[in-house]
From TrEMBL:
Record-annotated membrane-spanning stretches: 127-160, 191-217
Endoplasmic reticulum found in the keyword field: no
InterPro entries linked: Zn_peptidase_2 (IPR007395)
Protein name: Zn-dependent protease
Amino acid sequence: MFLLYFAIIILVPLFAQMKVKSAYKKYSKVSASSRMSGAEAARRILDSNGLYNVTVEETRGVLSDHYDPRSKTVRLSSDNYHGHSVAGVAIAAHEVGHAIQDQQNYSPLRLRHTLVPVANIGSNFSWILIIIGMLAGLSNFVLLGILFMAAAVVFQIVTLPVEYNASSRAMDQVVSLGVIRNDEERETKKVLNAAALTYVAAALVAVLELLRLVLIYTGMARNDE
């Protein structure tokens, strides 16, 4: 049973990462028929939604693309910023999808922003408390660690609708604005779905780990009685 559990928490994220890298590698070599770069696509979608105050910047790294709600900035990795590929356009549109969510006060996005500090604390301190509790046989420490970890798990779960909604918005925008043609929709969806799979894998692993720790705590609490 434990072997199956560890196989799941190791292999599922690896599979998700492989899908992302495979889809990105494949479709980063396929030029978008509009010949728009990721930066140009992002700018067009932003302007068409009245988001003139949101800037588009180049950032270092590979697949380091993200939207920063504090500075109202869409940051695209160099290949996606300058490139004219289907993959680059899809990722740029996805990040703009978050900017549109921000503009419209999309409630799951607001909830995720609220959970960020709590999730960071939970990720950093939960294991310290759990390990101390397990080594010292202190079930209350384990329980406290589980509560901290639960906050991080909630963050992972809330992230799912945020990411899928951003991808849905991205598809609507690139199609309606002519950034991609009809025959490119399938390729664009493959890139977006592969990226979303990483969040599903992270949420699944987080939930499984939380359940395992709950079972450990239940056994410790039973022994304390």
